[in-house]
Amino acid sequence: MLDDTDRRLLRHLLAEPSLGTADLAERAGLTTATCWRRLERLTERGVIGARQAVIDWRKLGYSVEVSLRFTLDKTDPRAFDEFLAAARLVPEVIGIETFLGRVDVRLNVIARDMKHYQELYRARILTLPHISDIEALMLVATIREAEALPL
Q1: Per-residue b/e over 117-129, b at no fewer than 16 CB within 10 Å?
Q2: What is the C-alpha separation between 100 and 21, in angstroms, rounded?
Q3: Which residues 6+ apart lie within 8 Å of 32 measured at CB?
Q4: H/E element, 107
Q5: What Rg do the C-alpha atoms of the chain give, in angstroms?
Q6: pLDDT digits (tens, 9 = 90+) for 35-83
Q7: Span 119-133, mean pLDDT?
């Protein structure tokens, strides 16, 4: 279980993931050594995964983001595996999620503009195997992204 110190440490880490251990320790009210040990323990327990860069795709020229929801033709027992393997090969697919329910898979796709998206959709998305139905949801605005957990 997490104690109050772990929660405080995680709150500061979530707020500013690029902090070095010494700065993180200072903000969390810990010594650098204690902070490092706690981070190591939280990492070993799987609470903390890899620290990663968050890239703003729009600043790299990708102005279109679409969430595509797929229902697969599940009469073939290899449908999921083959669909997922093919979807992983599309560089513009930045997220793949599977679900239980009416929707089987969701792909998050980025494109430079609508023309690029149309080309991508026709040449790469519609050719994915085992598609029974597709629903597209174009991102208009992100109102809230979880930047912190209720710790």
Answers
A1: beebbeebbeebb
A2: 40
A3: 21, 22, 25
A4: strand 105-111
A5: 20
A6: 999 999 999 999 999 777 778 899 999 999 999 999 999 999 999 999 9
A7: 98
